[in-house]
């Protein structure tokens, strides 16, 4: 199953539209809308709880459900607009919740990370108002995927310069879709498996 991790806040998100055009090409998917989830950042209490559960190897605990879902996915599409040279805070909170040693990664005797995720590829879909800068968004996710989670390939799918005065954001978005061999359907739920 393809997991679609949707970190787009706006109802008419261009990033979400680009991601759905990609998903239409990839096939049926399960969607996780991060802004509809009761995600909470790690704090002292939750770190202590996580440490206690991991010391008992209780990987089935409720707080690890997002990590289990991520580790089990066959392919992952993650959508997030460029915000403040990075991605929305809700995605960072999600990453804090899935980065669980024993579920998405483990450490070898030499102390090196060994990925435990099933997916062979992660697509990172993003749009930006100005030029797209991958340094603190895509590059971070690619490092996590390839160096920690065991996902060998990460690809950026992007549309940029959407908010520049005088530019036509619809034309730019459709040109970007065409460049990736994608087309958009009007039905947002097409291909949705749940
Ligand atoms: C909170 C916020 C921060 C943003 N920061 C940047 C930025 O650092 N660089 C940039 O080029 N665009 C930035 N933008 C513009 C968005 O990346 C752009 O409008 C994007 O297409 C929005 O995606 P969406 O339509 O999926 O919401 C920002 C927009 C918002 C709302």
TrEMBL record:
InterPro entries: Flavodoxin_fold, Flavoprotein-like_sf, FMN-dep_NADH:Q_OxRdtase_AzoR1. Gene3D superfamilies: 3.40.50.360. This is Flavodoxin-like fold domain-containing protein. It comes from Vescimonas fastidiosa. Residues 2-180 form the Flavodoxin-like fold domain.
